[in-house]
Design brief:
Largest sheet of chain B: 5 strands, parallel
Low-confidence stretches of chain B: none
Number of domains of chain B: 1
Mean pLDDT of chain A: 89
Number of helices of chain A: 21
CATH superfamily of chain B: SGNH hydrolase
Strand order of the largest sheet of chain B: 2-1-3-4-5
Number of strands of chain A: 0
Oligomer: heterodimer
Structural class of chain B: alpha/beta
CATH class of chain B: Alpha Beta
Largest interface: A-B, 22 and 26 residues
Largest sheet of chain A: none
CATH topology of chain B: Rossmann fold
Order of helices and strands of chain A: HHHHHHHHHHHHHHHHHHHHH
Distance between the termini of chain B: 49 Å
Shape of chain B: globular
Helix content of chain A: over 70%
Mean pLDDT of chain B: 88
Shape of chain A: globular
Strand content of chain A: under 5%
Number of strands of chain B: 5
C-alpha cells in the first residue's frame, strides 16, 4: 500500500479519523500507534520485528544514558574539581559507549538489508582480481519499509539525548510512535523527536477545518502524482530503458522529464504525508521549498529533501568538522597556507563525509555513489570559485542582484540538477555515461518531433504535462513570494472554494494518467 | 450538524457532476442500445457486434490468468475476460447471457473455481467493491476527453485495452507444496451452483457455443478433491474439462509467476495460460485469425497501447 493507494486515502485514513474522534483523548495516541503498526505490517509483514527492536533499543538506551547522567551528578556533588573532571570523563565514556553500541545495533539492520549485497559484490570483485577462489553468496533480501528513514530518526533521537538537547522519554508509547507514525514511516520527512513528540501524544480532536485542509493538501499531492509523474513515467521508462535507440535531444528530454517526475512524485507524496498528519493536528516540517528556484547546488539541497539535508548537517557535517582528526589537519593547513584555505579544507572534509553518505543512503549502487560525489564536486567548486566570480562580476560591473543574472543562475542550477538526476535514474554507470556522452556529442534535430511522439505520450499528454507543471509552478512561485495559496483559498467564499476543490478532483479523475497505456510510478523514495 | 450537511451537499454535487461528465464523455457506439450503467457493468457490450470469438468467464483467477491481448498478438483470436472478484456462478450465467446479446460466440471458458463459491458466503467487501466500481464509469472512460479534444469521437473503442484482464507484474513467491496431492475425497458442489451450471450448459447448447470448464493455476484455491468434483460434473453434462493445475502442465514457477503467494498468477504466469488457451482454440479449428481483418483494426491499435504499458 502506497500513500497514493485508494485504500489508504479513502478507507484506511477515514477509518482512523473516525475511530480517533470517537475514543477518549487518552487513547488517541494508542490508536495512532496501532494504526501505524497495522500499516507497517500490511506492507512489510513479519519484518515489523526490526522496527520494534529499533524502537526498544533507542528507548532503553536513552533511559540508560539518563540514568548515567543522574548517577554522575550524584557522584560529583562533593568532589574536588580535579576528581570531578575524572569522574565526569569516566561517565561520559560510559554514556558514549551506550550511544555507539545502540547506533551500531540500529545500523547493523540497515547494513544487513540494504548494503550487504552491495559490499558483498565489491568483496567478490576484489577476491576475483586477487584470483582467490572464493565468493560470498549474495542473497536477495526484502527490507522493512522505510528502514532508511526510521533508522536516521532513531540515531537523531539517541544523539540528541546524548548531547542533552532532548530529555530521554519515560514514555515507551511516545518513542514507539515517534519511529512508526504511519504518515512518515515510508518516505519521511525525517523528523526530530523534539519537533513532533508533543503533538503526537496530544490527541487533539480532528476538526472540520483540519480534515478539509488535510484532504486539500492530499488532493494536491494526488494531482502532482497522477496527472504529471505517472504521465511522464512511460516516456522516462523507454528512454532510460534503451538509450541507444534514441537521439540526443530525446535523451535530454528524458532526463528533464525524470527530474520533473521525481519532484512531482516525491513532493506529491510529501503533500499526502503532511496532509495526513495535519488532519490529526500534527504539524510536520516541509520537505521541499521550491527547489527549482535555487541559484546554486548548495541552495538546491537546502530546498530539496530538506529533512535529509538537515539530518546530514546536524549529525554528520558538524560532528566531522568538530572532530579531533579534522581539527588537527585544519591546524596544519592553517600554518602552511593560511586560514582561508584551512577553512575550505575543514569544510571539504566534512562535505566529503556528508556526500558519501548521501549517495549511499539513496541506494546501494555505484550510480548513487557517483550521484553523491557529483554534487560534492559541484559544491566544492562553487565554494572555491565564488570569491573569484564575485570579483569578476565587480570588475565587469555586473549586478549580481539583477533579475536576469539570477534567472541565468537558476537555469544553470537546473541543468546541473538534471545531469545529477540522470546519473541517479540510470540503471548503471555505463548507461549514465553513455547517455551523457550521446547528449553532449551527438546533437541533432532530425526527426525530433516524430520521435518524441512515438514514446507513449501524445499531443494531449504533453499539453496536460505543461498545464500541470504551470499549475505547480504558479503555486510554488506564490509560496516563494510569501503568499500562502492555501490560506488565500480558505479565505474565499464557499462558491470559489468549492469550485476550486471540484476542479482539483475532476482534474485528477479526468487528466490522471491511469488505466490502459500508462504505467504508474512506484513510490521512489520508499525504496531508500 | 450544519457542517455534516455541508459535507453531504458537497459530495452530492460532486456525484452529480461526475455523472453528467460520464454521459458527456461516453461516446460508446453501443451506449444508446444498452445504456451507460449496463455498459459499465458489462464492458463486453462496448465491443463491435459479433466481433468476439470466445469469452472466459469467472472470478479473479480469470482476470489474473488470461490476457486476451497476448492471445490476439500470438494467434489473432478475439477473446474477452468476463470476470469479477469473487464472482458467483449466478453472475457467470448473467455475464454469459449479456455477452450473447451482442456477440456470436464460438467458445465459452468457465472457471471451475466458481463452482465451489457458496452464494450464501459472498463477502460484503466484494459487494461494496462491485457497487462502487460499477457506479462510477468515469474511471474507465476518463481518457476519452482526448478524443473529444482532438475531435476523434468516431475512433473510440471503450471496451478497454486489456479486455477484462488485470495486468500485475508483482512477484510474491508461494511456499513450495504439493497442493494437487492425489486423494480419494471429492469436494461437493453446492446444489444451487449445480443448477446454474446446467443452465449455462443449456444456454450454450441453444446458442451453439462450445462450453469448456477450465481450472487455471492457483495453489491456494484448487485441490485434487475439487478437481474430482468438477470432473464428475463436467462428465455428467458432457462438457470438456481442462485442469491446468493437474501435473503443473504449464510448468508454472511458483517462485516467480504468482503475485500473492500462489493465490493468483502474475503477468508472467498469465502469458503461459493465455498461450495455452490460444493453442487450444487453434486446435478446435472453429475460430479464425483476424489480425489482418479491417473489422478488427482497433484490436491491433489496442495491442500497441497494451505493449507500451508492459513493464
Amino acid at each position: 500500500m502506497s500513500y497514493f493507494n485508494i485504500i489508504y486515502i479513502f478507507a484506511f485514513l477515514p477509518v482512523v479519523i473516525i475511530l480517533y474522534n470517537i475514543i477518549p483523548k487518552k487513547l488517541r495516541p494508542v490508536l495512532l500507534l496501532i494504526a501505524s503498526y497495522l500499516f507497517f505490517f500490511y506492507i512489510s509483514g513479519k519484518l515489523i520485528i526490526f522496527l520494534i527492536l529499533s524502537s526498544l533499543s533507542i528507548y532503553f538506551s536513552a533511559l540508560l544514558m539518563k540514568k548515567i547522567d543522574k548517577v554522575k551528578e550524584e557522584k560529583i556533588t562533593d568532589l574536588e574539581s580535579e576528581e570531578k573532571r575524572v569522574v565526569k570523563e569516566k561517565y561520559k565514556r560510559l554514556k558514549r559507549t551506550v550511544l555507539v553500541v545502540t547506533i551500531l545495533f540500529n545500523l547493523s539492520f540497515l547494513f544487513f538489508f540494504k548494503y550487504l549485497n552491495f559490499f558483498g559484490s565489491i568483496v567478490n570483485g576484489i577476491l576475483d582480481i586477487l584470483k582467490i577462489n572464493y565468493s560470498f553468496k549474495l542473497i536477495k533480501l526484502l527490507a522493512p519499509i522505510g528502514i532508511s528513514f526510521y533508522t536516521l530518526q532513531a540515531i537523531s533521537y539517541l544523539v540528541d539525548v546524548y548531547n542533552g538537547k532532548v530529555e530521554a522519554s519515560d514514555s515507551l508509547l511516545k518513542v514507539l510512535l515517534y519511529l512508526s507514525f504511519f504518515p512518515i514511516i515510508m518516505e519521511g520527512p525525517i523528523t526530530r523527536f523534539s519537533s513532533v513528540c508533543d503533538s503526537l501524544l496530544k490527541g487533539e480532536k480532528t476538526t472540520y477545518n483540519s480534515i478539509c485542509l488535510g484532504y486539500q493538501r492530499i488532493l494536491f499531492g494526488m494531482f502532482k502524482k497522477f496527472v504529471i509523474a505517472d504521465r511522464l513515467n512511460i516516456f522516462v521508462k523507454l528512454t532510460f530503458g534503451n538509450y541507444r535507440s534514441y537521439s540526443s535531444l530525446v535523451l535530454a528530454l528524458g532526463a528533464i522529464f525524470y527530474t520533473i517526475l521525481l519532484y512531482m512524485e516525491f513532493s506529491g507524496t510529501m503533500d499526502v504525508v503532511i496532509g495526513s498528519a495535519e488532519i490529526f493536528n500534527i504539524k510536520l516540517e516541509e520537505n521541499f521549498k521550491a527547489p527549482f528556484f535555487s541559484k546554486n547546488i548548495s541552495e538546491f539541497w537546502s530546498r530539496w529533501h530538506i529533512s535529509l539535508g538537515l539530518w546530514l548537517k546536524n549529525y554528520i557535517f558538524y560532528p566531522v568538522s568538530m572532530s579531533k582528526f579534522v581539527k588537527k589537519i585544519t591546524a596544519w593547513f592553517r600554518k602552511l597556507f593560511g586560514s582561508r584555505v584551512a577553512t575550505q579544507v575543514m569544510g571539504s572534509m566534512a562535505l566529503f563525509a556528508v556526500w558519501s553518505l548521501n549517495g549511499l543512503w539513496h541506494g546501494a549502487g555505484w550510480t548513487f555513489v557517483v550521484f553523491g560525489y557529483y554534487h560534492l564536486i559541484l559544491i566544492l567548486l562553487g565554494n572555491i570559485f565564488e570569491p573569484t566570480v564575485i570579483k569578476v562580476c565587480k570588475k565587469l560591473k555586473i549586478n549580481r542582484d539583477n533579475k536576469f543574472y539570477k534567472f541565468l543562475r537558476i537555469i544553470k542550477t537546473c541543468c546541473l540538477v538534471v545531469i545529477g538526476e540522470l546519473i541517479f535514474r540510470a540503471p548503471s554507470l555505463s548507461v549514465a555515461f553513455g547517455m551523457l556522452g550521446k547528449i553532449f556529442t551527438k546533437f541533432s534535430l532530425k526527426g525530433f518531433s516524430s520521435e518524441v511522439l512515438s514514446l507513449g505520450l501524445d499531443v494531449c499528454d504533453f499539453l496536460v504535462v505543461i498545464l500541470g507543471v504551470v499549475v505547480v509552478f504558479v503555486v510554488s512561485l506564490l509560496n516563494e513570494k510569501g503568499k500562502n495559496v492555501r490560506e488565500r483559498i480558505s479565505q474565499k467564499n464557499i462558491f470559489v472554494r468549492w469550485a476550486f476543490y471540484y476542479a482539483l478532483i475532476l482534474g485528477i479523475i479526468l487528466l490522471g494518467a491511469y488505466g490502459p497505456g500508462y504505467a504508474p510510478v512506484d513510490p521512489i523514495y520508499a525504496d531508500f | 450538524m450544519r457542517k455534516v450537511l455541508k459535507c453531504g451537499l458537497f459530495f452530492v454535487i460532486l456525484f452529480l457532476i461526475i455523472n453528467v461528465i460520464s454521459y458527456f464523455l461516453l461516446f460508446d457506439k453501443n451506449v444508446e442500445k444498452f445504456g451507460l450503467y449496463k455498459i459499465a457493468n458489462y464492458s463486453i457490450l462496448s465491443e463491435n457486434k459479433n466481433s468476439i470469438d470466445a469469452v472466459v468467464i469467472g472470478d479473479s483467477l480469470i482476470y489474473s490468468s488470461v490476457s486476451p491481448m497476448e492471445i490476439w498478438h500470438n494467434y489473432g483470436y478475439s477473446v474477452y475476460d468476463c470476470a469479477s472478484a469473487a464472482q458467483l456462478l449466478k453472475d457467470s450465467y448473467d455475464n454469459l447471457k449479456v455477452a450473447l446479446e451482442n456477440q456470436d460466440l464460438k467458445v465459452v471458458f468457465l472457471e471451475a473455481n466458481v463452482l465451489y463459491r457458496n452464494p450464501k458466503n459472498k463477502s460484503w467487501y466484494f459487494k461494496v467493491y462491485n457497487f462502487f466500481s460499477n457506479s462510477f464509469p468515469i474511471f474507465r472512460y476518463h481518457n476519452n476527453w482526448k478524443e473529444l479534444f482532438l475531435n476523434n469521437v468516431d475512433d473510440l473503442n471503450n471496451s478497454g485495452v486489456y479486455k477484462g484482464f488485470k495486468y500485475v507484474t508483482k512477484v510474491k513467491p508461494a511456499k513450495n507444496r504439493n497442493y494437487m496431492k492425489v486423494s480419494l475425497k471429492k469436494q461437493d458442489i453446492p446444489s444451487a451452483n449445480v443448477m446454474y451450471f446446467e443452465k449455462i450448459v443449456k444456454l450454450c447448447e441453444e446458442n451453439n457455443v462450445k462450453l469448456v470448464l477450465i481450472s487455471t493455476p492457483s495453489m491456494k484455491n484448487w485441490s485434487y478433491s475439487k478437481h474430482m468434483g468438477a470432473k464428475d460434473l463436467a462428465e455428467d453434462n458432457n462438457v470438456s474439462f481442462i485442469d491446468l493445475n493437474l501435473g503443473n502442465v504449464l510448468n508454472i514457477n511458483w517462485n516467480k509467476e504468482t503475485k500473492d503467494n500462489g493465490d493468483h498468477l502474475n503477468y508472467n504466469g498469465a502469458v503461459k495460460v493465455s498461450n495455452y488457451i490460444g493453442e487450444y482454440l487453434k486446435g478446435l479449428n472453429i475460430v479464425t485469425d483476424h489480425r489482418n481483418d479491417s473489422y478488427y483494426s482497433s484490436w491491433n491499435d489496442n495491442y500497441i497501447i497494451y505493449s507500451n504499458g508492459l513493464k
